[in-house]
């Protein structure tokens, strides 16, 4: 946390120096207008980016699982997240943040950021699973210790309560029923309206 505060302070000092230098070369009013225009553009970029992500967030909030039919393409999600991030950066008054916002919107930079995020996730999967388990407050469903320090929340059970059913068999046992022909068929998805 201390590093983040330190970086923020250094960033702010650099931004202030750049503001001062720009105000020396052009009027301070032009710099002020630049920041106002950048903020307006930032708000519109944030709205546009969040508009594409909102239906997905609402569905996950309501049902927990994302319907694959409603999931936008990866390129659309990437552009939406990049636009929202650029909007946030444009809302922060400063020259460096505006330049970073411009970079984030460029497709080659988006691809590099996506590749870096994928590499990070692939290299730190176990750490991320343990972190999610701690946030869930229970034992890690993927193995290892969760948020309870490896303790079993149900006492000292030495064996799996389901037995070895899942280790020995891969077939689900059950019976099938015939469906009468006069049953109404679903012709459209529940998501179509």
The profile of the biggest β sheet is: none
Portion in beta strands:
under 5%
Oligomer: single chain
Euclidean distance between termini CA atoms? 47 Å
Average predicted local confidence, pLDDT: 75
The best one-word shape is elongated
**Nearest-angstrom radius of gyration?**
26 Å
**What is the helix/strand order?**
HHHHHHH
- What is the structural class? mainly alpha
Please work out how many helical segments DSSP would assign. 7
Q: Uncertain regions: pLDDT < 50 for 5+ in a row?
A: none
The count of strands amounts to: 0
Which bin fits the share of residues in helices?
55-70%
List its traits.
193 residues, mainly alpha, 7 helices, elongated
